[in-house]
Design brief:
The protein is mainly beta. The chain has one domain. Helix content is 14%, strand content 43%. The protein is built from 3 helices and 15 strands. The strands form 3 sheets. Strands 1-2-5-11-12-13-14 form a 7-stranded antiparallel beta sheet. The longest helix is centred in the middle third of the chain and has 11 residues.
Length: 184
């Protein structure tokens, strides 16, 4: 199943990332490929918290790419020309500046080290993003949403899943990454 990484990342090599943003806290998201509109209709929330109710009552429309890379629940570092620009503990402004620097750069390589559980995303204009797990954590380090309505997720414990993007939490099938992966 380790070929799942090559199958998922090979089409991204040479594509520029866009709308690279800092999300809540130190979450990073990247769009790749042709844009399309995502429309989330209003819904009835399960919570009665006013903030949740206000969010649920809104229609959300935003551009997304054919692929979306979502980095969360892990340590990460952005470097350029050997210098650290930001990491997951950096101030908000520093994270946003690093995201801005990566925006528009083309992905040139994806590397996953099965031993250290580090993942490296390399870009053509010198930026690199490296992720590694928090200690004693089994959360996902990142998820790559694919055009086929599937999602490839990689966890801190060195396991991955490839399933439907609307799969119920807890229903994923997790596989161990047996060997290191490099694309291309």
């Amino acid at each position: 199943m380790d070929e799942a990484f090559a199958t998922a990342f090979t089409p991204l090599i040479g594509l520029p990332c866009w709308r690279v943003e800092r999300g809540q806290g130190s979450i990073l998201s990247f769009e790749f490929g042709s844009p399309r509109l995502l429309v989330r209709e209003p819904f009835v929330p399960t919570s009665s918290l006013p903030r949740v109710c206000q969010f649920a009552a809104r229609r959300v429309v935003r551009p997304i790419g054919e692929w979306n890379l979502f980095v969360f629940c892990c340590h990460w570092r952005v470097t350029a020309s050997g210098d650290t620009l930001a990491d997951d503990d950096s101030p908000q402004e520093q994270i946003e500046a690093a995201a801005g620097l990566m925006d528009g750069q083309k992905l040139t390589a994806f590397t996953l080290d099965a031993t250290t559980r580090q993942t490296a995303f390399s870009f053509d204009l010198g930026a690199a993003l490296t992720t590694w797990p928090y200690e004693a954590n089994e959360e996902e380090q990142w998820s790559l949403y694919l055009p086929s309505n599937r999602v490839l997720s990689y966890r801190a414990d060195g396991r991955f899943s490839l399933g439907a993007d609307d799969e119920e939490p807890g229903q994923e099938v997790w596989h161990t990454v047996a060997q290191s992966v490099r694309v291309p």
